[in-house]
Amino acid sequence: MLEFISVTQVKSLLQNSSIPRKSEQVPLSEALGRITYSPVIAPIPVPLFDNSGMDGYAICFADAGDSRKVVHMVQAGASPSIEWEKGTAVRIFTGAPVPKGADTVIQQEWVTLVGDQIFFDLEKITLGMHVRKAGAQCHVGEEVIPENTLLTPGSIGLLASLGITTVEVIAKPKVGLILTGDEIVESGTELLPGQIFNSNGPAIQTYLTQLGLDLPTIWKVKDQKDEVVRVIREALNEVDVLLLTGGISVGDFDFVKPALEENGVDPVFYKVKQRPGKPLLVGSKGPQIVFALPGNPASVLSCFIQYVKPVLLTWMGDQGAWTRKIEVPLAETFTKKVPLTFFLKAKLENGKVHILPGQESFNLLPFGIADGLVEIPEELEAIDKGSLVIFYPW
Ligand SMILES: Nc1nc2c(c(=O)[nH]1)N[C@H]1C(S)=C(S)[C@@H](COP(=O)(O)OP(=O)(O)OC[C@H]3O[C@@H](n4cnc5c(N)ncnc54)[C@H](O)[C@@H]3O)O[C@H]1N2
Ligand code: MOO
């Protein structure tokens, strides 16, 4: 097990860890934001039939002359069986099938109608004008969306146009959350002396929802070794990714590390050169990943954003999860004495980022207005106002 490693090393270990690639079939209504597991193939041609792109008149281009006799009308949704007569036209509307024999549509604005006769300027007419040919969008068997592609409202529309009702996407990991601590109670109950409200649970749950994950199974456990061992065993039987908060430091009631080891979890590393979140532990058991997050609320959120979030997104097929960050100029000079990477709650204003007061790891107040975290690298003691810093939006 590695101990007290740099943020860079943590990210490289996590990026290189193998993540299983599983698939699931989801209805289109649940497909937004998911990533395709396999290419999507068109089961029908679209359009299925030649149809009009304009409200106007369908003609046969080869029929001579600059006028036609209007003999039929075809509405969108109709299925015309018209015996085409030379020199005629058919009144037609956008989306309506172009009858056999016709090959060109003239929009009605270009036509003068006198009785049942239309007149038009022959010079302006071209063969095939305003006819949307069958298969112009795609043919049967054609790949319409490649694998590993993010599904957007537009792509959902494309799939619906093909009559597709479900799509094979990269499966979401099943996430479990264990909250440790005798002092933790749910808001809505009365706080007794020594107790605090559970804030890590709601923060993590909503973050998972924001990432498009299902609600995690949640276990709450007292700081008793046997109980912690039992609950971890139960959770590992159910989940792909296990998150724990608290109990990972060095106190007499911090049982998470030994309890994970008793359950066969291999610690990959313990403790990171960062503030907040120093006592973070990450382990694995087969394909399962375990994050034991230090209990302080700012440590939990900071570690979640930096490490848990990109791992979960990668699990769901997002190949850019580790590289997505922006650089923003710092609004005020920042100094630090300790050689740790700092993750600081910060607010964006007029294109600059302000580091907020209240950076202690127990203090949730800056989260009320922060837009994300600024990273100040381990080796730097000062960063001048105006210098570019890496900023991670929530
Ligand atoms: N002697 C040392 N003590 C500590 C060290 C150290 O290196 N040596 N590291 C400190 C740092 S840094 C951190 S971070 C914490 C991490 O401690 P644990 O992971 O063991 O977490 P707990 O002690 O259980 O809790 C810490 C803190 O967080 C509050 N908490 C826990 N769960 C929740 C929750 N669900 N919602 C809201 N708040 C929660 C808990 O009440 C504590 O105040 O260790 C330091 N100690
Ligand atoms: O590293 Mo701890 O997260 O400072 O409080």
UniProtKB/TrEMBL annotation:
<dbReference type="Pfam" id="PF03453">
    <property type="entry name" value="MoeA_N"/>
</dbReference>
<dbReference type="Pfam" id="PF00994">
    <property type="entry name" value="MoCF_biosynth"/>
</dbReference>
<dbReference type="InterPro" id="IPR005111">
    <property type="entry name" value="MoeA_C_domain_IV"/>
</dbReference>
<keyword id="KW-0501">Molybdenum cofactor biosynthesis</keyword>
<keyword id="KW-0500">Molybdenum</keyword>
<protein>
    <recommendedName>
        <fullName>Molybdopterin molybdenumtransferase</fullName>
        <ecNumber>2.10.1.1</ecNumber>
    </recommendedName>
</protein>
<comment type="similarity">
    <text>Belongs to the MoeA family.</text>
</comment>
<dbReference type="Pfam" id="PF03454">
    <property type="entry name" value="MoeA_C"/>
</dbReference>
<comment type="function">
    <text>Catalyzes the insertion of molybdate into adenylated molybdopterin with the concomitant release of AMP.</text>
</comment>
<feature type="domain" description="MoaB/Mog">
    <location>
        <begin position="176"/>
        <end position="314"/>
    </location>
</feature>
<keyword id="KW-0460">Magnesium</keyword>
<dbReference type="InterPro" id="IPR036688">
    <property type="entry name" value="MoeA_C_domain_IV_sf"/>
</dbReference>
<dbReference type="GO" id="GO:0006777">
    <property type="term" value="P:Mo-molybdopterin cofactor biosynthetic process"/>
</dbReference>
<dbReference type="InterPro" id="IPR036425">
    <property type="entry name" value="MoaB/Mog-like_dom_sf"/>
</dbReference>
<dbReference type="GO" id="GO:0046872">
    <property type="term" value="F:metal ion binding"/>
</dbReference>
<keyword id="KW-0479">Metal-binding</keyword>
<dbReference type="InterPro" id="IPR001453">
    <property type="entry name" value="MoaB/Mog_dom"/>
</dbReference>
<dbReference type="InterPro" id="IPR036135">
    <property type="entry name" value="MoeA_linker/N_sf"/>
</dbReference>
<dbReference type="GO" id="GO:0061599">
    <property type="term" value="F:molybdopterin molybdotransferase activity"/>
</dbReference>
<dbReference type="InterPro" id="IPR005110">
    <property type="entry name" value="MoeA_linker/N"/>
</dbReference>
<dbReference type="InterPro" id="IPR038987">
    <property type="entry name" value="MoeA-like"/>
</dbReference>
<dbReference type="GO" id="GO:0005829">
    <property type="term" value="C:cytosol"/>
</dbReference>
<dbReference type="InterPro" id="IPR008284">
    <property type="entry name" value="MoCF_biosynth_CS"/>
</dbReference>
<keyword id="KW-0808">Transferase</keyword>
<comment type="pathway">
    <text>Cofactor biosynthesis; molybdopterin biosynthesis.</text>
</comment>
